[in-house]
Fold this sequence. Notes:
By secondary structure, the protein is mainly β. It is built from four helices and 33 strands.
Amino acid sequence: MDIKLMKNSEKGIFFPVNDRLLMQITDDNYQYQGLQGKKYFILNAATNEKAEVAAQIKKYNFCKIRYACREKNYIFFTSMESVTESRISLTVYRFMFESNESEAVYTMEIDNTDIADEITYYIYVMDSNYFFIQKQDKDNQLIDIFMHDINADSDNDLSDTFVNEMGIYKVIPAGGNNCIIKFGADRMKIRDSKSSEKIALLNCKQFVSEISFNGSMITLEELDKSDEATTFPYIKASAEKIIYSKYNFKSQSEEIVIYDTSTKIKQVRLNNNVEHAMDLSFTYIINDTPYILKREEKSTCFINLNTQKTEYRLHSDMKFRYMFNDIVVVTRMKHRFFFIKKPSEYIEVYRISELHHPMLSTKAEYNSCSESGDDLIIFTN
């Protein structure tokens, strides 16, 4: 594993496209009805090459785009323009790396009031040909969902499927053609005792194929399902494992469930003393051991879920930034010389078991972190 610094990076969003390339999204100098225009760049961390995607097309992050596959040779983005005073044309574009070309693959009209009403649109990309578009209100309630087939230029309203009733609320790549999908909204946000949730492992291609031909027969491996007393407040991937929280309203307790997609082994750890939603802590897998990250008043500690004891504690002047396997990235303010009043920001990288010996320390203003294959990329301003 290498740690690479990419200096003088613009403020923005960074995420891996595949094992070789990263995506950077930054602000552009135009707006549309209060929405900030965006620039999209493809970065090659190994060569420091950077190329803008479809510079001639105005882009807006009105839709939240999520991908089911980790390795892909494409990205999607959206553009918007007025049709009438009350209607907006929303266009979905697909950019292919091999051809270096963008293509408008779907256009729909939406109400002008959707922006002011804080309506959220999600695009869940299953592969280069299929994606779901989901519409939610500002309280996270499902309004509409359908699947689009680019090659056939057709929509499926999902009326014969449970997806139409529950909606999609998280998609996580699980290797190859597989993904983890959380169906149903987090009831801590929507406060609806009647709604249900489930977490399932699916094959992306089989999933869209079965929906296309017979939506009532969907093959999936159900990992968990909520009942009237439980909900799933968060779900994430860490160290090739899926971690999710199962919160019980009645007992005010939380189960941290760790699922290994390769061995199909599920581990459950308890996190008691949870009084309300804000107490639910984030979880990381470090050297095959689950830890909860707890931010206390003067420090940040890592609690071993197997023993329920604090094993690692960041110094009080360290600000936690990122976790990559057993590598932790922090920032801290330092006075390089005692007669200089204004401190400087330093980025430091440690192995969690060696918090007194930094692997890297550099004077720089932290921007973001991302992963490129086995490497950790740190972006500085």
